[in-house]
Amino acid sequence: MSRNGPLALGFHGLVVLFMMAPLVVVCLVAFTPENTLSLPTSGFSLRWFRAVFERADFIHAFYNSLVLAFVAATLATLIAVPAALAISRYQFPGRNFFSALFLSPIIIPHLVLGVAMLRLFALMGVNGSFTWLMLAHVVIITPYVLRLVLAAAIGIDRSAEQAAESLGASRFTLFRKITLPMILPGVAGGWLLAFINSFDEVTLSIFVSSPATQTLPVRMYVYATESIDPMMAAVSALVIALTAAAMILLDRVYGLDRVLVGKH
Amino acid sequence: MSRGYLLSLPALVLFFGLLILPLGLTLVLSFNVFDYQVGVKADEWTFAHYLSLFSDSYFYEIFWRTFWISAVVTLLCVVIGVPEAYVLSRMGTPWRSIFLILILTPLLISVVVRAFGWSLLLGADGLVNQVIQALGGRPVKLLYTSFAVIIALVHVMLPFMIIPVWTSLQKLDPSAEQAALSLGASQATVMRKIVLPQVMPGVLSGTLIVFGLAASSFAIPGLLGGRRLKMVATVVYDQYLSELNWPMGATIAVVLLLVNLLIMLSWNRMVEGRYKKSLGV
Prior knowledge:
heterodimer, A: 264 residues, mainly alpha, 12 helices, 76% helix, globular, B: 281 residues, two-stranded antiparallel sheet, 2 strands, 75% helix, 4% strand
């Protein structure tokens, strides 16, 4: 039951075109058989995808990013779930400060966090270490898990927990059997959103990674500032495909529209 | 009560160690004396970096450019994002969800990929120039200009405008619109008197987010602005990684953070105040 006039729909078409154009172009150029980035291409070829898989630096960076995002998202979830439960169900002095602090990396520019952590890591002599890069990522992705788990934890019915408690369930059993299943969509959605954000992060990582711990977005950024060839398009198309897969998963476990516009 | 602290303890330790501490160290660093021969002098203090920020025409130019580019980007996001959110909200199922996801998901795709996409479109023989030539025009230099940076930033920021506007449109009661129309109000009056006041909080918070993110954006000006078109974030990068003047870089970063927080907090307060007043609370 569309209530939009032809003018509104025309405008809408242009906006969709604008949002999709750069992504579509990247995917088209990735399949070019030629040496240049020109469009339209004369045919279809996978040569640039093969070229990507022959680049040890890109493969290594991709592997780094995957491990980094996986471990960082898991750690962020392990930290954010108890914090979300604390904030959503206990009244204690400093509670509002805690929630503002844990959500603050969303509004602090990543550039500022990047140079700040660079200073700390340089003083500690650990700059470029994979462990500290990962902990830096945990800080910037924890808010995403926290937000989704908070939304889930605030909405649940506490009576089942009270019943289990009165029947003598231990705190751990209570959490594992009652609370966790109820907040699971929030936890899984938060983990995935954290994973995507860590996997995409470039601004902070550029300051606190070394050539050995370089992530894929940092490798791509550095490569793109030096040269532009269709291999970059092939890498980008692979990143788009991987992100799309993660988004479909996110849609299944939590609902993409809920993550994006907070609909419940 | 103590359980609350216990459960937040891991997060608290992490955020003190890796957020508050490094930010504090950066603030300290911005007052340290820097010498090109020796490097950072950790026990000598100066205000020189802050002074040169306000007196050096190089920094003045960069702050001014960052400001006007962010302002233009914010304006374009309002002009495009608000009507688009409205059009989306008036669509029927399933189109509404499909287009909402289509327009908002680029948010989750790496900004490096999106910048690269724009460099393909705006390059010397990119699609945009091909269209211009096909229409009989001359090819234009688009890449590595403020135009390219603005277009790509609008692409990155538009979802951040559409989301809050969409959210406030969800609270709009469609029967209010219908009532006004049936009472003989024109479409324009309905827009002005019913829809716009309702979406203003969304527009304001979108404006704030977009401006803050645009002013601190790094990858887009870095990849599409080229070597000469610097913005605040790319200058910080230069100070840290090529000039190696960390105290100067720290100073710019501190100012960027303070300006960002200031806009966020004051705007938040203003928006809250106004809507509390209008609700009669």
